[in-house]
Amino acid sequence: MATYKAGDSKREEFRKYLEKSGVLDALTKVLVGLYEEPEKPNNALDFLKQHIGAGGPETADVEALKLEVTELKQKVEQLTEENAELKQKLSQLEPQAEEQSEN
Length: 103
Known about the structure:
The protein is mainly α. The protein has two domains: 1-56, no CATH class; 57-103. It is built from four helices and no strands. It has helices at 2-21, 23-36, 44-52, 59-102. Helix 2 crosses helix 3 (44-52). The longest helix is centred in the C-terminal third of the chain and has 44 residues, at 59-102. Residues 62-103 form a coiled coil. It is found in: Nucleus. Belongs to the AMY1 family.
């Protein structure tokens, strides 16, 4: 009898842990989603895998990152153009410097 109580206690602790960490809510939401699917998928386990982390990143975070990517792409383009211009100026100045050093 004592081992049965110890097992129950561990089980209850684990259940509380899962509840506190939000695992039970997440699993419940995914299972409800599967239940409410009009056409049940052939592989329920794949459905669970796909939807268990479906929350994904916050939309505001995604939008901020997209904006940052756009700005960085523009900066790269601007720096690439500036680099090409400076290379062109340098190539024009190098022959002049060689001529002056020869005289």
